[in-house]
Each structure stands twice: as structure tokens, then as C-alpha cells.
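In this supplementary section we document a worked example of the pipeline. Step one takes a protein sequence of length 265 as its only input; no multiple sequence alignment statistics are reported here. Step two produces a three-dimensional model, which step three serialises into C-alpha cells for compact storage. The input and output of this example are shown verbatim.
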Amino acid sequence: MLRILRILLAVSVFVGLNLFVFGFAAGTGVLAQVQFVPACLAFNVVVLGVVAGVTLLAGRLYCSIVCPLGIFQDVVLWIRRRFRRTSFLFRAGRPVVRAVAAALFAALLLCGAASLAGLVEPYSVYGRFATHLFEPLAAACNNYVADLCMRWGRPCMLKSEIFIRGWSALAVAGVSLAALTVVAALRGRLFCNTVCPVGAVLGLLSVKAPVRIRLDAAKCVKCGLCAKACKAECIDVENGKVDQSRCVRCFTCIGTCKKGALSWK
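The serialised model returned by step three reads:
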């Protein structure tokens, strides 16, 4: 039930945000304002307070429900699993890598190199996909449907202008899309738990979250099904631990466990 609710919320946010980016629904622009780094740059204390408060209480729900790049990676993994079963393994965290990546990101912003910092900032990365690659495709589909409506004598849609950005921007977006798609398909949320600055900050806040994924050692038979399903690779079955700093609260593990050893409470 938790997983289904999380998916419904994530899909609603993802669709609404893309409609805004594509210019089809200006009213969903509020979803862009609740993104973590843009809220930091705008000194939006309300959004930052809510995100920090929820993360301190219940962990990284933001990463699975609000972040468009996180949801995009989940979509990639979902498609991959339709063709081939994917199994993950528990891997030790990389706190040093995450700290260095977050510090480098902050340094780039302070030095005025926002374009370089945007190469790893999740909202900027997905925004690059959406505006340079997905938006022209969405506009082309819209125009095709509008032409069909005209032929059927029901002119109920307006055509959209197709904007093609420069080749350098398209190349950066294409390479980033290909790289992140491959990483997500093979290693799940590896990007989120290594170089993503938002993941580093929220991971730090979620370490002591009182509402967390809990592993009941009395019920666990160490079958490893939960670890194989965990796209954050953060469930250590042998030691009966869940790395709360890397867990993105997708709740897949809870439904996977046949013994009811995992819960979110």
C-alpha cells in the first residue's frame, strides 16, 4: 500500500512538472518552486523547512516523490525490469565520495560556475533533458494530434512551436541522458547516493529519522530478496541493518519480503 501511494504521488508530480516545462500547464509551475536547490538559491525558507522537517522525521521521501530526476531513474528501472529481471546487492556506502561531491558542488556555486554545478544538480539535469530533448518531441506529438483533429473536422487543439536548441546543448543533454539511463538500469540509484548534492544533504538529515525502514531480526530468514530489490543497495541482510542515509523510501523492499520482516514505522 505504501509503495502504491508513493508511486501515485510520484507520477502526479512528474506529469505535472513535465506539463509545466512543456508549456501545457502553467498552473503546475509550483512544482518547480519546491525543488531543493532552486529553493536554496531563492532563499525559500518555507520549502526548505518543509523538506528538511519531513526528511528529519521520515527520511528521503523527497527523492522518490518530488525529485524529477529520481523519478526518471525509477521509470528507467521499471522499463528495464519489463525485459529482464534486475537483482541488486548490498554495497557499503561512500560517505567520502558524497562529501567531496557536495563540497565541490557548493564551491562551484560560490565561484559563479553555475553551469558546471548544474551538471550534477538533479533538477538542472532533468531540466536539460526535458527542455532540449523531450520538449521538441512533445511539441511534435501535439502538432500531429492537432493535424489529425483538423482533418476530422474537430479543431480542438492548438499547434505548438518547436524550439531546437544549439548543438552543444543537445550534445550535453544527450550524453547526460544516455549515461544516467545506463547507470539507473544497471545500478539503480547510484547517482543519487554518490554525486548528487541533494542526496548528500538529505542523506545526512535522514540518518536519525525516527520513522524509518526497520528490519525485524526475529522474522528475517536472510533470504536476500529485499536486498536484491533495493535500488539504493542499502539493505545489509547479514548484519540486519538498513543504511538510512541512502534509503530513498521507495518501499519496494516491504512488499518483497515474504516474512513481513520489513516495515516503515
